[in-house]
Design a protein that fits this description.
534 residues; Anthranilate synthase; 21 strands; 29% strand
Length: 534
């Protein structure tokens, strides 16, 4: 595979607070209060800050769905990726047909040791490229920009690099059924639609005229795997571990799930229009006895705000960890939230350490210690104006605290070494990392949430020119079979826990994070506490 010039990355292988409004506005501001002020206005800070108009069609559900359906006409699964990580305003949407899938299973990578696991990842990527019509026969990248590898890395892949972090390691080494679980899925994709061609795509009316009723979907009431009481108990236990000195910070999640019927393509496109994510990904797959006509019945759908790692052609790796979340209208609270700032500072230090494992000496730097960004924001429609808690012109979304850390990679660093150094992402584990992962393993596993999977893992793309962009697999849902002939949508959400975390506030934070996606999918979250009182 062709090496990237100068750095040799193989495709297989406190600063000022700034507002970056990922839904259409950006400018420097003095504090998070300006983010809150957007809730009452049109979201623009200045004319020069507006998103380029040529990108807007990417998030019109009709145009995006039409392009997806056209690509799918040839049969087989499709993939969509968006967001290239260079700046918050570069997303480079691409749609293509999946030509080959290479799965790396737990039994093939866990227990090998870090170095061998890294080599196994690079070998899997080479196999995926070799099976693509856009890759060379030997697995070397042909240099054709029409080829790309879509990456789905399960959080549990971290056990390959840190065996003590999860009980999964013992179960896999004992020959348990979990040895067959997919840790890394690499899909070789032939790109067929990009941003330029999408700008001329059809509108929603044209799509519905082609296939009336085909693209409907419905998500049932979402229920938590833990329930409110169970989640708050898990947070309380995490705080005990912190006070005992086990960790400084850890992350605790629960899974919202519901029956799903209809088109995953339509669900993804509809949510993209409303959420306008910084990073988006949609990957179809079949399983078991699924016929080709059922490719779209199983899918990963990601609308992530967070960059895990981007590697450019010069070999510079950038990560942008997120810590601190508020509803958009309460963004000013982030200015004085010591807890959120402490969380971010700890994770910045962790990510500096992780990148330093594969970086040139002295090249790791904190480009920006903190910035306030708004994500998943939109103007309320006319039908929402006047609804309870909603005012005309209000914008919905979340505000986050974000830092930027970068480093120049050493020559010869490939995908395997990069994942080995920094995976799973520090913002969704904690510090110290291994002990935080052990606590996560203890507190999260229960029926309905046996593992994180791609949630809190990584989703993204290695392009034919050797550049790589992976987002953190948050705000990410999967649609799978429910074991009874139906399908379920699973949307995990979590929160960072520190010494002064309050369990009820952390529960609310997880729902704040989920709220834009829940609304975009036309769903609701069941209040199990209210049910218990009834």
């Amino acid at each position: 595979m062709r090496r990237v010039e100068r750095r040799g990355l193989r495709p297989d292988g406190g600063g000022s607070i700034v507002l970056i409004d990922m839904s259409g506005a950006a400018d420097s501001v003095e504090s998070g209060r300006e983010v809150a002020e957007l809730a009452a206005g049109d979201g623009r800070v200045g004319a020069a800050s507006r998103r380029p108009t040529e990108a807007k069609s990417a998030w019109r559900a009709g145009a995006l769905l039409a392009a997806m359906e056209r690509v799918a006409l040839g049969g087989g699964p499709i993939a969509v990726v968006s967001g290239d990580g260079r700046t918050p305003f570069s997303w480079g949407l691409e749609i293509g047909r999946i030509e080959r899938v290479v799965d790396l299973r737990a039994g093939e990578v866990i227990g090998l040791g870090r170095a061998e696991a890294e080599r196994a990842i690079d070998a899997a990527a080479a196999r995926a490229w070799a099976g693509s019509t856009r890759g060379g026969a030997s697995g070397a990248c042909s240099g054709d920009s029409g080829g790309m590898l879509v990456v789905e890395a399960a959080y549990e892949l971290g056990a390959a690099f840190e065996p003590r972090s999860m009980a999964l390691t013992e179960r896999v080494l004992a020959g348990g059924a979990e040895a067959e679980a997919v840790m890394l899925r690499l899909s070789a994709v032939r790109r067929m639609v990009d941003q330029t061609s999408l700008d001329g795509a059809m509108n929603r009316t044209a799509v519905e005229a082609e296939s009336p009723g085909k693209n409907a979907f419905e998500v049932g009431p979402l229920r938590s795997s833990h329930g409110r009481a169970g989640y708050e108990a898990a947070v309380a236990r995490a705080v005990e571990y912190i006070h005992a000195g086990d960790v400084f910070q850890t992350n605790v999640a629960h899974a919202l799930s519901a029956p799903f019927v209809g088109s995953t393509r339509a669900a993804f496109a509809a949510a993209c229009e409303r959420l306008r994510p910084a990073f988006a990904a949609y990957v179809e797959r079949a399983s078991g006895a699924d016929a080709e006509a059922s490719w779209a019945n199983r899918a990963t759908m990601s609308w992530s705000p967070e960059l895990f790692v981007d590697v450019d052609a010069a070999g510079r790796a950038t990560t942008r960890p997120i810590k601190g979340t508020r509803e958009l209208g309460s963004a000013g609270e982030l200015d004085v939230a010591a807890k959120d700032l402490a969380e971010l500072n700890m994770i910045v230090d962790l990510m500096r350490n992780d990148l330093g494992r594969v970086a040139e000496i002295g090249s790791v730097r904190v480009d920006e210690a903190r910035r306030i960004e708004s994500h998943h924001a939109e103007e309320a429609g006319a039908e929402e104006a006047g609804a309870e808690g909603t005012m005309a012109g209000e914008r919905h979304g979340v505000a986050h605290g974000v830092a930027t850390v970068s480093a120049r990679l050493r020559g010869g660093v490939g995908l395997g070494a990069l994942l080995g150094a920094a995976f799973p992402p520090g913002s969704v584990t904690g510090a110290p990392k291994v002990r935080a992962m052990q606590i996560i393993d203890e507190l999260e596993r229960r029926p309905g949430f046996e593992g994180r999977g791609v949630y809190c893992g990584a989703v993204g793309v290695v392009r034919g020119d050797g550049q790589l962009t992976l987002s953190v697999g948050i705000r990410t849902a999967t649609v799978e079979g429910d074991g009874a002939g139906g399908r379920r949508l699973v949307l995990p959400v979590g929160a960072g826990i520190v010494a002064d975390s309050e369990p009820d506030a952390e529960w609310i934070e997880t729902l704040v994070k989920a709220a834009p996606i829940v609304a975009a999918l036309g769903a609701s979250v069941v209040d199990d506490a209210a049910e218990a009182r009834a």
